[in-house]
Amino acid sequence: MTISPQIELNGVHLTVIALVVVSALWDIRTRRIPNFLTYPAAIGAVAYHTVSGGAAGLYLSLCGLSLGLMLLVVFYFLGGMGAGDVKLMGAVGAMLGPGGVFDAFLYTAVIGGLYALFLLIMNGNLLKTLGRYGCVLRTFILTRSFMVPPAAERKKMPALCYGVAIAAGTLLSVFGQAAGWSIRPPFTT
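Given the sequence above, the corresponding structure tokens read:
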């Protein structure tokens, strides 16, 4: 499928686009990304790359799957996101390989940060949050230990649907890859 004279999308691109769009919509509606979206996508991607590329395709897909999981699993363990988000990034990695998932992760991180900032501004919590982080930084500079002051009030914050950020970051990565550009610097020898 050709979008413009410079951009050519293949079947893997179209599949990952469908996956992230459906996952984002599901995340918005239910606040979770179900296994029945992520597991078949990851398994299908590994199978496809193995059949089409042999051992090299298997290796590429498993490296992408592993990298996608590793990039977000720390945030899951810290309570910053759900397991569905991590598995979605793993499935994206299985489809796009390590280079593609790394691009998607970089875009996702920027978009996710802007999304969180937007939510803080919309709920009037930006200054309070910045004040708390400033206190943590000052405490660390003076005492060399992290002490996080408790929030003064526990106002219900809207959930950050990170599946939306993953979808947006992956879409930027896919269209960028199809157009032949990357945000990663080229490796030099």
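Residues 2-152+159-179 form one domain. Try to locate this feature in the token string yourself.
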